[in-house]
Design goal:
- The chain has 264 residues and is mostly beta strands.
- The chain has one domain (12-263).
- The protein contains no helices and 30 strands.
- The chain has strands at 12-14, 18-21, 24-26, 31-33, 40-43, 51-53, 62-69, 81-83, 90-97, 100-101, 107-109, 113-121, 124-125, 133-135, 139-142, 145-147, 150-151, 160-162, 166-169, 172-174, 177-178, 190-192, 196-199, 202-204, 207-208, 220-222, 226-229, 232-234, 245-247, 262-263.
- The radius of gyration is 17 Å and the shape is globular.
- Residues 247-264 have low confidence and may be disordered.
């Protein structure tokens, strides 16, 4: 069992190697630091989310060096991690895997979110957006991977659903899928409604699967201004339009790719 030593805001709690079947609520601005990915595992109790973060915090507080896996939020949000509106810790050197929720299978963030060297893989949104991550505020990711995440129905963004701005530096989206029918289903790899900035990284073998006769973006759907430099789009597929890169056909002037893309 994981036992967290009582701590004051600003402290760091170090978690030894091991597999801890637990549910954690962070209600103070303390950092949680494991012994490394592949050494420290926080695994959800049956039918429960792994971690809920309710304390107001910034990126000076971190959740780092561990695996967060096996959480189930059911009809709720954020199977692995749920961040309330004022909780914006730095998520660093993590693997968030094998979690499920209605929305934000791996991570659900009401707050601004920053990911550095994070792998988000094999998570599922069962009835909403963001198979890997659902972000309602600005999102930043660097040196991170979104892989094998799924939206089953009722949502957008197999790997990532970003309502506000998304900035990605060397971020890979690989083999994510959106199978949503009806008015949803856009963004196999990611969908971004705010401004988009990508530097490097890749979108590979992401897909949407339902024919709707509009929308698409097997790799990426972008609905606002975009700056994309040196990002590879390879073998993404869509049941509709925009195999690799799609934009909002209703607002065509909103999508501006400012730097050349390396397509296919």
């Amino acid at each position: 069992m994981l036992r967290l030593t009582p701590a004051a805001p600003g402290d760091t709690i170090n978690i030894s190697p091991g597999i801890y079947i637990t549910g954690v609520t962070l209600n103070k601005a303390v950092s949680l630091v494991g012994a490394g990915v592949g050494a420290t595992y926080l695994q959800g109790l049956p039918g429960q989310r792994v971690m809920t973060v309710t304390a107001a915090m910034t990126a000076s507080t971190q959740i780092a060096q561990m695996n967060i896996q096996g959480g189930v939020a059911g009809s709720g949000m954020g199977g692995g991690i749920y961040l309330t509106a004022t909780a914006s810790p730095l998520l660093q050197n993590l693997t968030v895997a094998l979690n499920s929720a209605a929305m934000g299978g791996g991570i659900f963030a009401n707050s601004a979110i920053t990911l550095n060297n994070v792998t988000v893989s094999n998570n599922t949104a069962t009835n909403g957006s963001g198979g890997g991550v659902s972000a309602l505020s600005n999102a930043v990711a660097s040196n991170s991977v979104f892989q094998n995440n799924t939206v089953i129905t009722g949502g957008y963004g197999g790997g990532l659903y970003a309502v506000a701005a998304f900035t990605g530096d060397s971020v890979s989206f690989i083999n994510n899928v959106n199978t949503s029918p009806g008015p949803y289903g856009d963004g196999g790899g990611a969908i971004v409604f705010g401004s988009l900035s990508l530097n490097g990284g890749q979108f590979i073998q992401n897909r949407t699967t339902i024919v709707k006769h509009y929308g698409g973006g097997g790799g990426l759907s972008a609905y606002s201004t975009a700056s994309i430099s040196g990002t590879q789009f390879l073998s993404n597929t869509s049941a509709d339009s925009g195999f690799d890169l799609g934009c909002d056909e209703y607002l065509p002037q909103a999508m501006r790719v400012l730097l050349p893309l390396l397509m296919r």
